[in-house]
Amino acid sequence: MMLRADAAIRRFRRDLTFTRLLNALFVLAIFGTFVLSVLRVRGVDPLMVLPVIACVFLVLSFGSVRGTRLVQDSPSLIASGQFEEAERRIDQALRSFSLFRHVKVLGIHHLALLRHAQHNWQESALLCRALLGQRLGNLQGIGKPARLMLADALLEMGDVRGAAAAIQGLYEQRLSLPELMKLLAVQLDYQSRLGAWNDMVAGIAGKVQIAELMPAGSSARAQAMLSLAAKHAGRQEWSDWLRRRAELLADVQRLTNDRPVLWELWEK
Fold this sequence. Notes:
By secondary structure, this protein is mostly helical. It folds into two domains: 174 residues, Serine Threonine Protein Phosphatase 5, Tetratricopeptide repeat; 93 residues, no CATH class. Helix 9 crosses helix 12. The protein is elongated and about 90 Å long. The model has no long low-confidence stretch (mean pLDDT 83).
């Protein structure tokens, strides 16, 4: 049975609240023990109470390790197309108790990755928005790929304005090479829908270099988009060259079915 995004988000938010409360209780228990010791309350010995609190914390921590192991392999399973196994592990990670919030945050992130790979754009966008609505703390690094994934999903649903808002600010951030490649793909898709051909061909040589590093299908689409932009911008030599490169990388029929605007390159 497919894990519904709205149910996963409700569980995610509930578990984060419970985790915060539990961690606060541990802190209060330790603080309260020292306060009572300073006040010389009879029957309160920190040397006896603190080890008990530490043991409880360690037991709960060891129980949380299982959730960490479940989410670790999810991206590789998704990349290899083992969607059912990835979903099973993500579901178990989200259902299991964890003292550490990163297990739940990564679980939602990996579920968004899975739905994106399954082309379930609506659920992918919903999960990304839920993730970006949280304080990510030391997991701040997943915010950029989540924004890129949200923008891509919104473009697939035809929400151009929402996609632009999702990637706003990413241009000023330091991005890894995979993030740069994804940003270029999203940017070209977004600009082609606006007809911003001159913006697309600006710095075209650098964009082609990045596109050449993409997987074949993504590279073909990016170079076809640049070819179309070059055609509209009056740079025919670039357009012809990029069109031929796209033909070598992907089936034209499939490429144009995915993005009908590209039919213009092969309409003759």
